[in-house]
């Protein structure tokens, strides 16, 4: 029994690892290359490692933080050789990510409402489609709301996902007030006894004050039907993004109070290091990571697995 | 989070001041700051390294060390070097071929290809070209519908792509259609794809082969991180791209990806996307991009935008009014409305040097304040607007009620207006000199 489980687990790891191959390829091999054949830890080595980390989009500040605490341990002679150094970096990153490991949970009663936000082109609609399919499969009664009334054909795009999942969608016409869509959908979710309502919103750059105000309004309107809704405000972040993702997380958080993050497009070559920077600077749980096109490729985030996979 | 490079370097040089001649080590300190600024702007670390090495060569041995304003000197070198790396001159689309000329747009998922496609179509249409948009993204749900809708809004023809046939076939047939119907330009919107996805990259090659595009544009998100170089390099290797369009530059992304992509591919950046609407496509200017990466503001774009909005007739009228000292609240309102057209306060501030740093520190302009002022002026009678001095107690109360504001707000506006009028007076009397003498220069 345990053997089978072990095997399954192994299969899962290797799959995740192969999905994250872009990520692991660069990070692990680069660190290996930097520490290869080096018996002692010197300034040059630390500098090389700094480049490896920054090159993975971990960011200047977080990379320095990581190397500083590792450097402290070197000075205290806790780390003798390069391998120990590599492990220490791994531990540091895992510690940062572990704090933000927390799975999305449903409310015990009534519809759980999830509002999905993010900048343009990060994959909000695709993520919603996958989440809807997943929770439908888990036996939940799912409803989605086409709250992106701005972008041409965004409603149609979500509609196709709804058809694929065989679930209902609440929609208005192009250019309609997204707050009205949100209101209607939450009433519908209540009336139909849905377990989960996922509300799509139009992509917007976090620096546009009027658009962020619109988002606040959408959120406010929901509380009129269910006072504690939305229960989850999920920010979708594209793993290809650099340091700007920190600014995105900060400003969206200030406007609508984020409760979770989803990192998409990790199947490319980006290392997704900016997750580590976000986790280091802000306190927002990481819920999901997207490692491929398939529905099953949107997974719950697990810090140990993630670090294991990238190293 | 980001501090302007100018401020940082000023800080470094301040610390070094009074130590006589600067050593090589001091220069290292300065270069380190430059490197950090580049990395924070998402310039690829390898590109940053090369760039800093180039700066060192130019900085050492120059008169930087003896200069009274070493920070400025260094920044000038950095800016010059970056501008020349980004491409010196503006580079437009090359449509010099027998029509229909084909343009193929490529890039990762979500980089903004479809939106950019419609923006290019609008631009070309304004140049009196007959444009055909070709949706060839059969992968993403409703991508074809999206381009069709965008085309409809612009009154640009969109090829009726059949999602059940391959993008290669769609492109081929669309080109044929364009030939028989004498289109000038064919814009093909391809599906987003990862550069490591071999079958899909192969598909792009085949499309290229079949339609022989004059331009193959790589559309990149300005917020892309360190990976921008590998992605661009691979697209260029497979397709031999002819240019780059950088999107989503209307946010606070510093756009280091621009430098990275240009440095590794050597291909020119042609346009930048600066908004969601179809007119938000601007030519790429290397010097402005350099300023942005270095967080030095973009005064040129601000001036250009202002010129666009303020019609020359209005400006003449305004000058006349200033001369005769008859600038009234109606003019004031016009100015406010024009300013709103330039962009949000946020955007305007973003273009002013050094403001990037302030914004990060939490400076947020109050957009509502402008609306309030407008509402107050709207609640005044024509007579009151012409001669605000007649607005006394009861009028103030009426205006505040009418505009849904407090009397204090009305008072504040009237006081500000009075000051503006005074300022105008001294300008028209003695030009800027008079203004300075009067001690009323707001900066």
The percent of residues in helical segments of chain A reads 40-55%
Mean of pLDDT of chain B: 82
Total number of beta strands of chain A? 8
How many structural domains does the protein architecture of chain B include?
A: 3
Which regions of chain A contain 5 or more consecutive residues with pLDDT less than 50? 1-10
Descriptive overview:
With about 300 residues, chain A is α/β, with parallel strands linked by helices. Chain A has helices at about 1-20, 20-35, 45-55, 60-75, 80-100, 125-135, 155-165, 180-190, 210-225, 245-255, 275-280, 305-310, and strands at about 110-115, 140-145, 170, 195-200, 230-240, 260-265, 285-290, 300. Chain A has an eight-stranded mixed sheet, sandwiched between helices. Mean pLDDT of chain B is about 80; it is low at about 430-443. In chain B, helix 10 links the parallel strand 6 and strand 7 (about 270-275). Chain B has helices at about 5-15, 25-40, 45-60, 70-85, 115-125, 145-155, 165-180, 200-210, 230-240, 255-265, 285-295, 300-310, 310-325, 330-340, 345-350, 355-360, 365-380, 380-385, 395-405, 405-435, and strands at about 100-105, 130-135, 155-160, 185-190, 215-220, 245, 270-275, 280-285. Chain B is built from 20 helices and eight strands. Chain B has three domains: about 5-85, Up-down Bundle (Four Helix Bundle (Hemerythrin (Met), subunit A)); about 100-295, Rossmann fold, CATH 3.40.50; about 300-435, 434 Repressor (Amino-terminal Domain) (Orthogonal Bundle). In chain B, helix 4 packs across helix 11 and helix 14 packs antiparallel against helix 17 (about 365-380). Classes of the chains: A alpha/beta (about 300), B alpha/beta (about 450). At the A-B interface, helix 3, helix 7 and helix 10 of A face helix 2, helix 3, helix 6 and helix 9 of B.
């Amino acid at each position: 029994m345990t053997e089978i489980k072990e095997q399954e687990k192994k299969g899962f790891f290797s799959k995740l690892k192969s999905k994250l191959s872009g990520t692991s390829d660069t990070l692990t091999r680069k660190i290996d290359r930097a520490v290869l054949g080096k018996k002692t830890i010197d300034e040059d080595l630390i500098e090389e490692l700094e480049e490896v980390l920054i090159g993975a989009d971990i960011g200047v500040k977080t990379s320095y933080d990581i190397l500083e605490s590792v450097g402290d341990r070197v000075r205290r002679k806790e780390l003798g050789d390069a391998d120990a150094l590599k492990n220490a970096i791994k531990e540091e990153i895992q510690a940062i990510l572990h704090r933000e490991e927390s799975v999305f949970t449903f409310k015990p009663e009534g519809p759980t409402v999830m509002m999905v936000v993010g900048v343009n082109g990060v994959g909000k609609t695709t993520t919603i489609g996958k989440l809807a399919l997943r929770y439908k499969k888990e036996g939940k009664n799912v409803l989605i709301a086409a709250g992106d009334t701005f972008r041409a054909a965004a409603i149609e795009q979500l509609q196709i996902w709804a058809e694929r999942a065989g679930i209902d969608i609440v929609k208005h016409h192009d250019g309609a007030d997204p707050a009205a869509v949100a209101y209607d959908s939450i009433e519908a979710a209540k009336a139909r006894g849905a377990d989960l309502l996922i509300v799509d919103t139009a992509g917007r750059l976090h620096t546009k004050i009027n658009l962020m105000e619109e988002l606040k309004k959408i959120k406010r309107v929901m509380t009129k039907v269910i006072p504690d809704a939305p229960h989850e405000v999920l920010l979708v972040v594209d793993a290809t993004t650099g340091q700007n993702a920190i600014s995105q997380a900060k400003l969206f958080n200030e406007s609508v109070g984020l409760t979770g993050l989803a990192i998409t497009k990790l199947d490319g070559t980006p290392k997704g290091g900016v997750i580590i920077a976000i986790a280091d600077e802000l306190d927002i749980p990481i819920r999901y990571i997207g490692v491929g096109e398939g529905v099953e490729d949107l997974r719950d985030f697990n810090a140990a697995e993630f670090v294991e996979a990238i190293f | 989070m980001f501090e302007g490079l100018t401020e940082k370097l000023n800080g470094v040089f301040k610390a070094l001041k009074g130590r006589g001649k600067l050593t090589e080590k001091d220069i290292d300190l300065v270069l380190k700051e430059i490197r950090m600024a580049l990395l924070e702007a998402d310039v690829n670390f390898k590109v940053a390294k090369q760039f800093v090495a180039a700066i060192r060569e130019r900085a050492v041995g120059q008169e930087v060390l003896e200069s009274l304003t070493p920070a400025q000197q260094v920044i000038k070198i950095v800016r010059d070097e970056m501008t020349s790396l980004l491409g010196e001159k503006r580079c437009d689309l090359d449509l010099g071929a027998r029509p229909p000329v084909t343009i193929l747009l490529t890039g990762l998922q979500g980089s903004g290809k479809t939106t950019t496609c419609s923006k290019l179509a609008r631009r070309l249409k304004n140049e009196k070209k007959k444009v055909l948009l070709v949706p060839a993204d059969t992968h993403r749900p409703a991508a074809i519908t999206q381009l069709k809708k965008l085309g409809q809004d612009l009154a640009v023809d969109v090829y009726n792509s059949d999602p059940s046939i391959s993008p290669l076939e769609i492109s081929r047939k669309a080109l044929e259609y364009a030939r028989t119907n004498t289109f000038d330009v064919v814009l093909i919107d391809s599906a987003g794809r990862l550069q490591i996805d071999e079958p899909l990259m192969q598909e792009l090659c085949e499309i290229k082969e079949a339609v022989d595009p004059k331009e193959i544009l790589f559309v990149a998100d300005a917020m892309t991180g360190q990976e921008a170089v590998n992605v661009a390099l691979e697209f260029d290797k497979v397709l031999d791209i002819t240019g780059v369009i950088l999107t989503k530059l209307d946010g606070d992304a510093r756009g280091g990806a621009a430098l990275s992509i240009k440095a590794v591919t050597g291909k020119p950046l042609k346009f930048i996307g600066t908004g969601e609407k179809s007119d938000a496509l601007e030519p790429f200017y290397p010097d402005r991009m350099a300023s942005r990466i270095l967080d030095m503001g973009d005064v040129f774009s601000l001036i250009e935008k202002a010129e666009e909005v303020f019609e020359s007739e209005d400006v003449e009228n305004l000058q006349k009014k200033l001369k005769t000292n008859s600038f009234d609240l109606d003019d004031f309102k016009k100015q406010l409305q024009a300013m709103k057209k330039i962009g949000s306060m946020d955007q305007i501030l973003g273009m002013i040097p050094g403001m990037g740093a302030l914004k990060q520190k939490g400076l947020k302009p109050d957009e509502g304040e402008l609306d309030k002022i407008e509402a107050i002026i709207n609640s005044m009678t024509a007579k009151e607007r012409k001669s605000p001095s007649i607005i006394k107690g009861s009028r103030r109360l009426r205006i505040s009620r009418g505009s849904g504001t407090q009397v204090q707000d009305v008072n504040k506006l009237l006081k500000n207006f009075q000051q503006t009028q005074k300022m105008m007076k001294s300008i028209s009397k003695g030009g800027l000199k008079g203004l300075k003498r009067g001690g009323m220069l707001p900066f």
